[in-house]
Structures
1.
Amino acid sequence: GQQLNQSPQSMFIQEGEDVSMNCTSSSIFNTWLWYKQDPGEGPVLLIALYKAGELTSNGRLTAQFGITRKDSFLNISASIPSDVGIYFCAGQRAGHSNYQLIWGAGTKLIIKP
Amino acid sequence: GAGVSQSPSNKVTEKGKDVELRCDPISGHTALYWYRQSLGQGLEFLIYFQGNSAPDKSGLPSDRFSAERTGGSVSTLTIQRTQQEDSAVYLCASSLGYVGYTFGSGTRLTVV
């Protein structure tokens, strides 16, 4: 099925480092969502973005809805061990049913010991 | 319940057998979704139920897949004559609106 282009695929970082990941598409989106999935669990919503240019924070997480409406990024500042997991972007495309989300393949965050 | 409950959490089945996966959504949530997540992949939409409306089955990969939602609550995803490529984690989510998806922990299906 169709997916968003999410990068990087995985990241190895030191505790305390900042993290950045993004999603891009050739399609225009009305909504961008960022989820985190822990092992053995379903994804949990972190941040929802509804407007082009919108910048939203949730604690150490910041996400932005790109001006072109074709991309979004998620930043995590001062990473901690519990940030480990898989981060997914998801979007609702303009002109499509608003309940059908398109998903990125995920960014796996690993903290180096 | 407090969250979305899925059962079983793990299922190993022989190729060719039928399986049923169950989802108990959050009480009061009118929308229910089934997704499939293959290893290292994002989520693949399967089917969507909203209240008493006809479900959107456009994501079901073949006619071996079907789903029901009884009484607007519990849903069952049935896979007939399972194939090895059906092995994946099947996730159920419920919501009042599409943004507030709450996912269950999933059923990991392994077809051997």
2.
Amino acid sequence: QVTLKESGPVLGRPTETLTLTCTVSGFSLSNPRMGVGWIRRPPGKALEWLAHIFSNDEKSYSTSLKSRLTISKDTSKSQVVLSMTNMDPVDTGTYYCARLLRGIGYYYFDCWGQGTPVTVSS
Amino acid sequence: VLTQSPGTLSLSPGERATLSCRASHGVSSSFLAWYQQTPGQAPRLVIHGASTRATGIPDRFSGSGSGTDFTLTISRLEPEDFAVYYCQQYATSRFTFGPGTKVEIK
């Protein structure tokens, strides 16, 4: 059974760095057809893709947030970590990690974690 | 950019729902997906490759379209189908979600 679980601080302060961890089970981060992505949903707004990473360390970031994001993985721990610098109240929302499947002619998120709420406030 | 219409769809159980997703530039059908999100829950993959139902998705859900226009159809709404639906595209190593269509009970 594939599961993903997000963890990290519920409350962040403006200008601080947020670090979120996604712990996965049921699949390996060394599988070249599978990666992990981070997606968030601000209150009352739509889903927003942030970043993703694959087994070969191939990474991609949202153009608008690229300067603030860093994604990394620890295959031995089955964890993917997302860091976001210079937090702002507009970064408040629920943050999800999801398994990303890829192959010839397909890329999609097939399994999602339950999400972790983050509030940025002074 | 993806746009979805309508923003809200008010229907009764048993009715047919037709949701539209339009891309500002042509999208490969292979890279177009639909997700369902109910309040307090994580998004769930419904359709990938524009028309392939995800595992466990009932056959009342169907996807179609190509180029810039895609459609998600729910043939007969069940109570558990009332949710927000997002389309998503993948291009140049990046993902984009549409603003969502809320399907609510009339």
